């Protein structure tokens, strides 16, 4: 007799990484609202380059990027450009392995969500 699958067992896990102020929390809220499981991976704060994979190992990894200027404007961050560059360094491994990279500087939150949803759906024939 075949094993019965849980109803949500086919819903993919989407990991989201990026520097502070890139829009991770907003994208995750939108994806979860569309029925996807998501994990905010705080890779930008970790010294372990592959933490995103070791802890979460998502089915799809989305990397959001924003410039120093836009990040500090969005989040009213009081940090230096050197601190921003350090976050990018810590994110380099995740960026190299990301399934989707979205440059968010000139996009609305709706446009970021739309790009992510279109990509996820195209990868999974949802």
Could you characterize what this model shows?
With 126 residues, the protein is an alpha/beta fold. The chain has a single domain (13-116), classed as P-loop containing nucleotide triphosphate hydrolases (Rossmann fold, 3-Layer(aba) Sandwich), CATH 3.40.50. The protein contains five helices and four strands. The protein has a four-stranded parallel beta sheet, sandwiched between helices. The radius of gyration is 15 Å and the shape is globular. Mean pLDDT is 86; it is low at 1-9.
In short:
The chain is α/β, with parallel strands linked by helices and 126 residues long. It has helices spanning 24-33, 51-56, 68-75, 81-97, 109-124; strands spanning 13-17, 37-40, 60-65, 100-103. Helix 1 links the parallel strand 1 and strand 2.
